[in-house]
Amino acid sequence: MTLSGSLLIGQRDVGGTTHFHAVNPATDARLEPAFACATHADVEAACRLAADAFDPYRALSFERRAAFLEQIAVCLGENADAIIARAGAETALPEGRLRGEMGRTMGQLRLFATLVRQGEWSLPRIDPALPDRTPMPRADLRQRRIGVGPVAVFGASNFPLAFSVAGGDTVSALAAGCPVVCRAHPAHPGTSELVGRAIRQAASTCGMPEGVFSLLGGAGHEVGEWLVKHPAIMSVGFTGSYAGGTAIAALAAQREVPIPVFAEMGSINPVYLCPQALAARTESLARGFVDSLTMGVGQFCTNPGIVIAPEGDAFESFVRIAAETIATRQAATMLTPGIHAAYDTGVARLAQCAGIREVGQGSDDGAPNRGRPMLFRTTAEDFMRERTMRHEVFGPVSILVSCPDTATLRVLTESLEGQLTITLQMDDADMDLARTLLPVFERKAGRILVNAWPTGVEVCHAMVHGGPFPATTDTRTTSVGTAAIERFLRPVCYQDLPDILLPPELARANPLGLTRQVNGTMQPPA
Amino acid sequence: MTLSGSLLIGQRDVGGTTHFHAVNPATDARLEPAFACATHADVEAACRLAADAFDPYRALSFERRAAFLEQIAVCLGENADAIIARAGAETALPEGRLRGEMGRTMGQLRLFATLVRQGEWSLPRIDPALPDRTPMPRADLRQRRIGVGPVAVFGASNFPLAFSVAGGDTVSALAAGCPVVCRAHPAHPGTSELVGRAIRQAASTCGMPEGVFSLLGGAGHEVGEWLVKHPAIMSVGFTGSYAGGTAIAALAAQREVPIPVFAEMGSINPVYLCPQALAARTESLARGFVDSLTMGVGQFCTNPGIVIAPEGDAFESFVRIAAETIATRQAATMLTPGIHAAYDTGVARLAQCAGIREVGQGSDDGAPNRGRPMLFRTTAEDFMRERTMRHEVFGPVSILVSCPDTATLRVLTESLEGQLTITLQMDDADMDLARTLLPVFERKAGRILVNAWPTGVEVCHAMVHGGPFPATTDTRTTSVGTAAIERFLRPVCYQDLPDILLPPELARANPLGLTRQVNGTMQPPA
């Protein structure tokens, strides 16, 4: 599998008239080959193919849909070395991390294959006819969920595999029966093309309709805008910045037919240190925090951007140890020159906030695009006064906030914006405080952790990688884990259909052997 | 229970400085008393109370929440005669219809009480810790769904009980654990106040937090706008016009924190007459259609506004019999002078479309605000050319569309906008055509009916009263039936929480005895 720089429109390679190059962020060197920028006609062609593929794709059996997802994992595995090498050059992520991410991506595909095969994601509901009911008989009513239609996927820069071309949005859309038109992230076009070719190969091997997947690239915002505005696109999955996510959501809301946008835009992921835990475990908490903060050069949506703790001696010790620890950490190459520049700008902006003070930083060798770990401190009062401190700075920077009393802690917590995660470090003696804070945390975050660190998102059934705005544009969902499929489904009700016209999920004989809801009660297959 | 014209802000009656009156549409007479128009401060007070009530209300046991819903039904029942009398004066709906609607409203409250008590609506998902997993252990991850926060409810004019103050939106929000601030429909303020008092009485009897319910009235759009823009409001339920629903959705999208809007805006509900069914059952289809069209003066979201059939002798017979039948139907009072005026305007606009022809009409005695049943015919070609014909005219008017061949039928179907329902009248010999159309219907509508009529929406578990835009602003949901609760829920994930902090749905001992998803598989209680 070699790189051509083409767009992948269905099974066709399409060249371009304008091109762009990837950059190796570790060296600022241009990487070959040149990549085609999609034109409006290319977007039109890919969306049209996707629309044509929707009915035939969703009509395939769950088994065939599952086999397709598994085959994508196989094709990724067969090309893993080439993909990881290219991803390393394009993102500066270490090979070990990329191998782990490849494993996660393949595991995610297999997890969704299992989900699709089980079939209960379609949530079949049956209210059988009651012909003798008075005063009016009841019709036979059956509900299942089907895909919403073609989905536009915008890959993330920070997970070039697990949240990009074959990542969580793509796999949950394909699992839901929706064709995908993916807009390749311009920071890793080569990785995108290689992964896209693996998906295309799997589609061909499994006899999928041609338009089930297309990959479009481009250097600017145009391709994404055309895609979101295209009438064939019925939903959007996005992982990236607040600016990007809200711009796409605004475009989608202004369409003649508005469509939902599931944008995961990150957050500052507050960590609360309860008094007893802080006193008893000052050093391990400080070290654990710095590990979580600096992991992957802080380039995680769930990076702990603020630590909130009671003021006093224990907090002062925590600050000192965290500062000492961070001084031992080195700056490392960030994902792109743009992300590095935004990080430096964001840190500089924080440094200028009233009432903030720098307390520690990592070392920096001055090589290109290195993100240097940074630690600030402030008070609850200053934090609440200065809105700048509430906004995520993507990278290894965090603010330690001291709080004079529980009342202020409560007010500060209420003042927070929506978060992906909130973490509570607590011991048994902190239980009353935890009980007070928990209902507020539930309103503010998608995931609440106790005595853990927020970086690291398990791909499983119970995960929520989501949360109230501005963490995401839709708090009712998750973009990680099997519940992510729900974003791309909608219910359809069938009234009095003859059995021969019913989909197998709803047919009277239950040929798929599903657990179905009957008259409001879950009923296993006979 | 007597009418005071007050706003109901929590347990307080609040008078106004400006007022408006209801009108009896049958006589155009003003109805006493005067009703207060809510001020911005009133909206603020109600929303603030709702925000304060959210945590205590959602913390109550499912049993107490269910008992509250049941008590609302009891209080409605105790005041049914007064409510029905006032609703009759404000809407001109016949007493029998209103008694049926009251029964439906009470039944809906009890259905949701049962749902809440069962508890599985919270969709508990558990992925237990895997401490020995390599290379990384897995944390204990548990997910449940909680309410999104205070919900603004906009009642519908055409269901003054079942889709208004204590209707489907209110009950599904309260069931989800969300306080409700209801904007009373200005067409039935007295009915709204009486129903609001019943809810408030139930809230008091059941010891609910004060802000769990408030009712705000007003004559214009201001109150609704303040409500949708208020930061405490986290979601909106609306049933009404396209103009109203899209205006609210636009306001909600422009908020600093955008919120979802579930607006059900109606549709033209196409009815397809397949060739064999049309030939075999011409007369019964024509009569059944006119019955469905004229029921309730055509004032249903699911009214059959267009009939599509193959051209030819059978269609001509259908047109003739339908025209003869509609001539026997009389005009009847519509819900409001405004709805009547819009109906007349809409019919006049249809009559001016190129290629349309009036084929029948009911009789009209000239009394105020009477909607006269009207029937038009056109061809598929003209229908596709003239966008006006695709837009709902709320009331007893329908267009009969003749189609030259199956290819045109398919193109016409693809050209349709999103619909609440699509109905197929078919016999066994029409099976191939039905199979061809069904996938398109699934993309276009929330509910597909065979050999039935779309008017009449069962409140049950499998119902979908929803559909692609412009039928609604969110195709992923329903506003009727138990699945309507999902609109007002969001998932929260708990990682490594000690058992004592877990909500009962997720606690290790499963104290509520719920069926829970464990490692992706449904597991009944031990």
From TrEMBL, chains A, B:
<dbReference type="InterPro" id="IPR016163">
    <property type="entry name" value="Ald_DH_C"/>
</dbReference>
<dbReference type="Pfam" id="PF00171">
    <property type="entry name" value="Aldedh"/>
</dbReference>
<dbReference type="InterPro" id="IPR044151">
    <property type="entry name" value="ALDH_KGSADH"/>
</dbReference>
<dbReference type="InterPro" id="IPR015590">
    <property type="entry name" value="Aldehyde_DH_dom"/>
</dbReference>
<dbReference type="InterPro" id="IPR050740">
    <property type="entry name" value="Aldehyde_DH_Superfamily"/>
</dbReference>
<dbReference type="InterPro" id="IPR016162">
    <property type="entry name" value="Ald_DH_N"/>
</dbReference>
<protein>
    <submittedName>
        <fullName>Alpha-ketoglutaric semialdehyde dehydrogenase</fullName>
        <ecNumber>1.2.1.26</ecNumber>
    </submittedName>
</protein>
<dbReference type="GO" id="GO:0047533">
    <property type="term" value="F:2,5-dioxovalerate dehydrogenase (NADP+) activity"/>
</dbReference>
<feature type="domain" description="Aldehyde dehydrogenase">
    <location>
        <begin position="18"/>
        <end position="407"/>
    </location>
</feature>
<dbReference type="InterPro" id="IPR016161">
    <property type="entry name" value="Ald_DH/histidinol_DH"/>
</dbReference>
<keyword id="KW-0560">Oxidoreductase</keyword>
